[in-house]
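Moderator note: this is an archived Q&A kept for reference. The question asked for a predicted structure of one protein chain; the sequence and the answer are reproduced below.
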Amino acid sequence: MKNLLKVTFGSFILLAGLAGQTQKPVRKVSGSVISSSHDPAIQIQLPKAVKYAGADRWVLYGVADCELHAFAEPDGQNNVKALYWVQFEGYIPSRPALHYEYDSTRHVTIGGMDFFVDTWVRSNEEKIREGSDREHIENLISARGLKMPAGMAYVRLVHLLNAQKRKELMIIYGEDLAPTGLTASDLREGGNAHLSGPPLKAA
């Protein structure tokens, strides 16, 4: 039986052999719900206001089978005010020595699953690494005629499926900074509005 993982975020800004092949995404999406039959078997329910921007699946940097799904909450002018990025990922069998490592000391339990928690801010002017998952997610958003805002604050949740640490579920939520009147530079360490508490890391 699938777990039901209900993901709803309010504003968090003030809170602390597959290589070379393209595979079709295998998870199913209905409205704002993603259903996965494996790795892990789960249903992820996002807020009903989101719009599905599509999915992509490829071998990330030649080492990991990566399937991502993009959801956005646009404003009335096709600007993204909130982004939901759901990613299922696992190292390919030909790279048996690789394992995921996260050093965040912050954790949260959702639907009985433990997640590492990281936060950061990002300017849309920052360079995107070629072939990265960010490049794929922003291509999906752009293909839907949506525009990313000048700056966003992000929270990343990562669940490692087992002790081998070779497969993960990652959920990233991004929120437009414009309503706060602040920029990514303002909120980074050393900025004039840097938040106290857990640091916002650059990414």
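Archived answer notes: Helices lie at 133-143, 184-187.
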